[in-house]
Amino acid sequence: MKEFLKKKDIEISLKRYGIDALGAMAQGLFCSLLIGTIINTIGAQFNIEFLKQPVATVAGVDYTVGGIATAMSGPAMAVAIGSALKCPPLVLFSMISVGFASNALGGAGGPLAVLFVAIIAAEFGKAISKETKIDILVTPLVTIGIGIFLSWLIAPPLGKAAMKVGDVIMWATEQQPFIMGILVSVIVGIALTLPISSAAICAALSLTGLAGGAAVAGCSAQMVGFAVTSFKENKWGGLVSQGIGTSMLQMGNIVKNPKIWLAPTLASAITGPLATCVFKLQMNGAPVSSGMGTCGLVGQIGVYTGWVNDVAAGTKDAITAFDWAGLLLISIVLPIIFSLIFDAIFRKLGWVKDGDMKL
Question: Of 6, 92, 130, 175, which is most buried by a Cβ count within 10 Å?
Fold first, then answer.
């Protein structure tokens, strides 16, 4: 069995499923749901008729350009997961149907359902791939058959479970914004720097509202914090690659000296409750944006998209100067200030030394 699994490149491990597959799922979301949301926002804000008008009608539902991209989030996630699991072509292409089914049946918690179903269907597909003389029939049949059966069986309860957890987190943040502001900001921020996908976690839990705002704060603090505290070692290239790229680049250095993680993490513990209690920062755009921080400014675009949606829905009167000030302070200014202060303290204590954050 071990030899067979090795031959099929089936690696049952936390890294393969919890890091590779989860990270790929987030990329699939970026290339569908997130991009679709951005396209819709651009069309609405700049009054671009082509982007505002329906370009296709399916089963009586009109779809704009962004709407089509958003509707493809299930297939995009499943194919991305299949790619991360190194599926052969027939299995990879079959994942399109699996992703659509699991995401649709999972409801609002569809991303979590896609993760589980896609992994299982992909591994079964890889196992049967090229084992028969009619591979072109058998491999897609097994992959799609197992994937859609599992979608029918477990996607609805998985989706409901994810939604319930997300609802509890968001409810708790509304009830205890200070405490939950700290917890959500720190935990999601740490997840962003770890080699797992904070964006996929937020998407799976449909994390929005005040909790989403705290998540944006925590992720931004990690990225901006590492970017400015390591500027002496990494200069402008490091500032850009970490500040609007990813703080995950520091993982190797964190393993060598975990204390370098203290400054941005403590900064997130401050900006999180400031976001929830003072600025009432809510992330009501696509949930995946909550776990992005300043990566490509996706977190900030998500917050802005939420504002636009709220104004259009009548739940928000207008986008105010206070809104913009809060977003700028929580995302960039305060993480810079607090991270530099804490970093200076830890360097004076000898916990952090020059070169510790060299990329």
Answer: 92
181 has pLDDT over 90: yes
In the block, tokens 């009432």 appear at 280
Q: For residue 339, which of 250, 207, 209, 252 has the smallest C-alpha distance?
A: 250
Count the neighbouring beta carbons within 10 Å of the beta carbon of residue 10: 16
pTM as predicted: 0.78
Using CA atoms, how far residue 215 sits from 8, 42, 228, 294, 317, in Å, is 38, 24, 20, 11, 24
Helix (H), strand (E) at residue 282: none
Could you give the CA distance from residue 221 to residue 265 in angstroms, rounded to a whole number? 7
| pLDDT given at position 249 | 86
The pLDDT value recorded for residue 22 is: 86
230 CB burial (10 A radius; 0-12, 13-18, 19+): buried
Contacts of 216 (CB under 8 A, 6+ apart): 275, 281, 283, 289, 290, 292, 293, 299, 300, 302, 303, 330, 331
Average the pLDDT over 139-160 and give the result.
95
Q: Kindly state the DSSP code that residue 314 receives in the 8-state scheme.
A: T
Which strand (E) or helix (H) includes residue 61?
strand 61-63
For residue 330, the number of C-alpha atoms closer than 13 Å in the C-beta half-sphere is 35
Stretch 253-264: mean pLDDT: 94
Q: What is the dihedral of CA 95, 99, 105, 107, to 10 degrees?
A: 170
- Confidence (pLDDT) at 39: 87
- Phi-psi category of 261—alpha, beta or left, where left has phi over 0 and alpha has psi -120 to 50? alpha
CA 220 to centroid of chain Cα atoms: 13
Please state, in angstroms and rounded to a whole number, the distance separating the CA atoms of residues 314 and 41: 17
Closest CA to 342 of 240, 229, 246: 229
pLDDT band at 154 (very low <50, low <70, confident <90, very high): very high
